[in-house]
Structures are given as structure tokens and as C-alpha cells.
Amino acid sequence: MKFNTVIIGGGLAGLVAGISLQKAGRSTAIISTGQNALHFFSGSFESIEEAPQRIIDLFAEAGVRLHYAPGVRLMPMGTFKKSTLSLEDISLLPEPKIGSKALIVSFSGYHDFFCSFLAEGLEKQGMSCRIKMLDLPELEKLEQSPSEMRSVQIARTMDRIWENVVREIRMLLRDEDTVILPQVFGLRDTSIPDRIRQGIPAQVIFTGTLPPSVPGIRTQLLLKRRYELLGGTYLMGDEATGAHVHEGSVHSIVTHNLGNHFLEAENFILATGAYFSKGLRSNPFQISEPIFGLDVEQAAERSDWYNPEFMREQPYMKYGVATDATLHALKDGEPIKNLYAIGSILGETHSEMGTGGGLAIRSALAVADQILKTSEE
Ligand SMILES: Cc1cc2nc3c(=O)[nH]c(=O)nc-3n(C[C@H](O)[C@H](O)[C@H](O)COP(=O)(O)OP(=O)(O)OC[C@H]3O[C@@H](n4cnc5c(N)ncnc54)[C@H](O)[C@@H]3O)c2cc1C
């Protein structure tokens, strides 16, 4: 199988690169073992400070509506965190204050949303809170098994019964100016959070639950669908296990499922994430990149990898594969001509590109542009 570009890793970085290349008419394949950091996504992209119209448009074309409003968002413990670019269902507030009285609503038997911590955090800031657990007959079947009362299962049900929730809240509402709900709405239908806001005569704020993240899973599904609609080949559940590299260029990728059918391409993009997704691995002696054996920027002494004060910034989180200025990956100090690295596998080796979601998107766009430019020359 031969493509213009093969992308290893189907998280945020891999999908943004794949969509950009498919849109420009290049044939691509994404190989992805499965779960990625989007499944734990808060709904806000880190380190994007400027108004990013190109990014907003790319997501909008996939059905992911973003809004850009430098401010703060409400965290699950009732504190506030600085945020700028976010999914539209995350409320971005101009200041760390949401009103004077809040009704916090959850569901009987659902334990992934910590109402009392949230109330305690908000009360410390002078807000008065009332907690109400809704007893919904539609959730009774899920309640029979506690493992079913998780955010994704609840979200599947909520897609059908959100109007009942709105009705119940309207009856419960007294003089509260704010209603706080868990982020379990709009898994399949992205219009639901907005419609809930319109149906409740108070400010409605959706707040994070324990992972997995419903808005994150929705974002992943929509980006993947957009990529496939553009003609991309998404090899779900497969794993890149090795590569054929000759004279400083990658020739093909070996995958677990395709066996002797190697994936050939002109360009290759490594978007396998950091430790969490096993794009970087570590043992007591070194931190390594397992597919190509690329150079990883890291302190030579293990004792320098971490700060013994657990809550402090940890140096190993900044390590990543070494690349040149155009994100070509380095092996033994030399760039591999047609292999690029993007996303969290870069660590903080390119601090100008930011961290987290900002890094994933910026590096993916930069490499897609680079590939398009090179193939036009
Ligand atoms: C738990 C968690 C929560 C986060 N929350 C936020 C947040 O709220 N906001 C924010 O801005 N940033 C957040 N981040 C930072 C996050 O890393 C980036 O935002 C971004 O999603 C990373 O995308 P990525 O594509 O580089 O890597 P990943 O999302 O890690 O994706 C890498 C993909 O590569 C696949 N893969 C790995 N090895 C192979 C292989 N050999 N073959 C095939 N596939 C492979 C993995 O299965 C995975 O699907 C979070 C990170 C973590 C770990």
C-alpha cells in the first residue's frame, strides 16, 4: 500500500495533520493503536494565546465548534483556570466569578461528578450553592450495575433524554442565577449543550467529570469522521512495530495487523504522543522512542530526570524526540529526510510551539504545510 504520507498516531496531532493533507489532495493513512489524550481532554486547548482563525475553521469543518475568548473556566473543584481556545460547550468567563447562587445538578448513582467538592470550592469564594440529584427512570437500568454509571454511558442516555433533564431543572430552579451540570451532554449531537442553555432561565455551566471526557471523545469522533470523509485511511487498532530506513529516508512502516504488507509513502509523520500513549518509553537507564530509535533530548543523569518534590515541575515531562528546525526527526544526530515528529512526542524541545493542545495543533499544521510546500517544488 502506497500513500503520499503515512501518519503514525491518530490523536489530535495526527488527525490535524491528516485532515490538512487530505484537504490539499494528498493521499494519507493514519495508523493508531487506540486511546489518546483527547479521551481525557478538558475541552480547552493549552497555550493558544492568539486568535486562531485557521484552527477554528479546521475544527468547524469537522463539526467541532470552538470559541476563542481569553478568560477562565470553572474547574471540577470549584476553582478557576485561565483558558482561551475551547470547545463551545465550555463556558469561558471574563473573570473568576460565576454569579451569587448556583444550583448544582447531578444524577442519583452517578459518582464521576463531585458536587460537594464543587460546592465547597464555590462557597469559599462567597457563592451559595444547592445540590440536587435527579432520579431519572431512564437511568435506572444503568444503576443496576455501578460500572455502567460512568460518564460515557450516561452521555449516551442523555443524548435521548436531555429534554427531560431541562424540564426537571426548570421545576427545581428557585432564585439561582447559575445552573452547573456535568459534561455529559452532546456526545453524538453537538447542538444539545446549546439547546440546554436556551431551555433553562439561568446561566448554564458544564463542568468536567472524572475521565473519560465526553467532549474529548466527541471531538475525536468528529475529527476522525472528517478525515475519513476527506478520503483518509484510518487503520484503527493497528500498531506500527518497525520501519525500513535506507540511506537516511524511511521507505516503509511495518504494522502488527498488516504483517508483510508494508505501508510505503513519500513522507512519514510520527505522532505517537508521549509516555501516556507509549510514543516515549522509559526504563531506569534511558528514555527512548520505540519505532525508529530516534534521538531523545534528555538529561544524561537519571537523578536529573525528576524533581524529588512530587508536585513541582518535572524535567522528564519536557523531554522529547530531537528534531531540526523543520521538525525532521533526528537519529544519531542526523535528520531523517522524510520523517517528521509532531505533537506531545516533542515534549518541550520546541518551546516556541507551546505545550499540550497548542503544540499538537501548531506542529501538525507546520509539518502539513512543509510537506505541501516540498511536494509543490
Ligand atoms: C491525560 C491527559 C490529559 C490532557 N488534557 C489536555 C487538555 O485538556 N488540554 C490540552 O491542551 N492538552 C491536554 N493534554 C496534552 C495532550 O498531550 C495534547 O493536548 C494532545 O492531545 C496530544 O496529542 P498527540 O496527538 O500528540 O498525542 P496523543 O493524544 O497521545 O496520541 C497519540 C496516539 O498515537 C498512538 N500510538 C502510539 N504508539 C503507536 C504505534 N506504535 N502505532 C500506532 N499508534 C500509536 C496512541 O495510541 C495514540 O492514539 C493532556 C494530556 C494527557 C496525557
Short structural description:
This protein is an alpha/beta fold and 377 residues long. It has helices at residues 12-23, 53-61, 115-124, 140-143, 151-172, 192-199, 214-229, 356-376, and strands at 2-8, 28-32, 66-74, 80-87, 101-107, 128-134, 178-182, 203-207, 233-236, 240-246, 249-255, 263-270, 281-282, 287-288, 296-297, 320-321, 328-331, 334-341. Helix 1 packs parallel to helix 7 (214-229) and helix 1 packs parallel to helix 8 (356-376).
Describe what you observe in this structure.
With 377 residues, the protein is of the alpha/beta class. It has 2 domains: 2-41 and 218-376, 3-Layer(bba) Sandwich (FAD/NAD(P)-binding domain), CATH 3.50.50.60; 53-57 and 64-211, Rossmann fold (3-Layer(aba) Sandwich), CATH 3.40.50. It contains 8 helices and 18 strands. The strands form 5 sheets. Strands 1, 2, 9, 10, 11, 12, 17 and 18 form an 8-stranded mixed beta sheet that branches. It has a 4-stranded parallel beta sheet with strand order 6-5-7-8, with helices on both faces. The chain has a two-stranded antiparallel ribbon with strand order 3-4. Strand 17 (328-331) and strand 18 form a beta hairpin. Helix 1 packs parallel to helix 8 (356-376). The two termini are 25 Å apart. The model has no long low-confidence stretch (mean pLDDT 93). The structure holds flavin-adenine dinucleotide. Flavin-adenine dinucleotide (FAD) binds at residues 8-14, 31-38, 40-42, 44-46, 239-240, 271-273, 276-279, 291, 343-344, 356-357, 360. Flavin-adenine dinucleotide binds next to helix 1, strand 2 and helix 8.
